[in-house]
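Sanity check. The docking grid for 6-O-phosphono-beta-D-glucopyranose depends on where the pocket ends up, so I'm generating a full predicted complex first rather than guessing from homology. Inputs follow.
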Amino acid sequence: VPVDPFDLVVFGATGDLARRKLIPALYHRMHDGQMPEDARIVGVARAQLDAEGYRRMAEAALDEFGGEDARDAEMRRKFLATIDYVPLDVMEEAGWSRLKDALPTACGDRPRAFYLSVAPRFFGPIAEGVHAAGLTDANSRIVIEKPLGHDLASAAALNGVFAGHFSEHQIFRIDHYLGKETVQNLMALRFANAFFEPLWNARHIDHVQITVAEKVGVEGRGPYYDGIGAMRDMVQNHLLQLLCLVAMEPPSQFEPDAVRDEKLKVLRALAPLTRLEDVVRGQYAAGPGMPSYVEDANAPTSRTETFIALKAEVANWRWAGVPFYLRTGKRMKSRVSEVAVVFKSAPHSIFPAASGRAAQNVLALRLQPDEAITLGMTIKEPGPGGMRLAPAVLDMTFADTLGASNMRMPDAYERLVMDVIRGDQTLFMRGDEVEAAWAWVDAITARVDGERPELYEPGSAGPDDALMLMHRDGRRWRELA
Ligand code: BG6
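Predicted complex below; grid placement will be based on this.
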């Protein structure tokens, strides 16, 4: 469905996110007929370029990150024609008039979005700047990305900065995990099917595992990452958002505040983590031909964690006693993100010991690679060998089902940017959610920051203590395929 014509002002237009994600995402939306030709993208950055110079940069971004579809010459021409550029140092008052010249003062009926693809120290000046320049009205919105603070106090201060100029329904806080296909599917799976809901509770679910494992290290991102670490970079946002979608009560409608109210209740129900053995922090060591984290980050004495595993609990009636094990790390064995819901075993086995043991049922939602929903079950081993039990997997890999095999899987940003234009906040975090997540995280970081993380081998499943975290409970992590 095409969106209305819009103006999108991208601050930080020459940066990495704009080149890798935003420009290609917008191109694909136009290619697929969703972005109208009279939409406008206004790039803003300090570089002294003219519109032609920025269009060349956008073209290079399409060459590098646009994939097959970006080869369509006619479509490229149309897309590049929507792009304008304004050189502006947001810290200097003088440049703002140039942005005013490039945009009509009132949004009129065109949604106008200011996308802040810049470091957080520029958030305040930009929110202030667009307001002072008279470029905002009821039809404008502002889009921001993490880091949304580094603790509760800084996140609350940031919320305050935006609240000074925009109302909550105009503020779009991106967590790109919410734009991933499988994450949205988690909601469809839970709330569009009747048969999971009766089982979706502590009576039937043994535990939940949420894994976001990456193969890459921090590479050039050391200056941002050091002192931040996996807890703030990944758990506070992506992993807790996934946990919320698994644990929340059914909202009464698929409507932004109904969904976000339920997620907020989950965050507020997270039990404070009291036992230190329920948190395992790791840091990747050097491997053959691969530098260690401290070398990558050029921080020889750093105690920043590049891996963290946690055992969390949602303290409410539905989930009492069900552990949520979370883990995320860099430079691990493979790139796997998944949510696995592990069900309790059948209450009584009717089969003789010689049949073998039934495996626990596991519903797994794989976010990447190869988006899929799988259901691990136990069946009879085929053949005349008597009643032998064997594990089997019902596999719904999206590329094979739904006729999606030759379909390009859209990037999360494509969905999210169009939602901004439509004014739909369902997949964006509300200010109070961000603060509630920080409140839980702060209580943990206050106790473990500065402790020496356990070194782990690159290409492994993380430190040994992370395995122990589950072994102690008689459980194990799923394999990182
Ligand atoms: C970002 C983190 O939010 O998510 C990165 O800052 C991380 O450290 C990235 O690499 C992972 O995203 P994805 O989509 O590649 O799983």
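Relevant for the grid: Residues 229-247 form the longest helix (19 residues).
Also worth noting: The longest strand covers residues 205-213.
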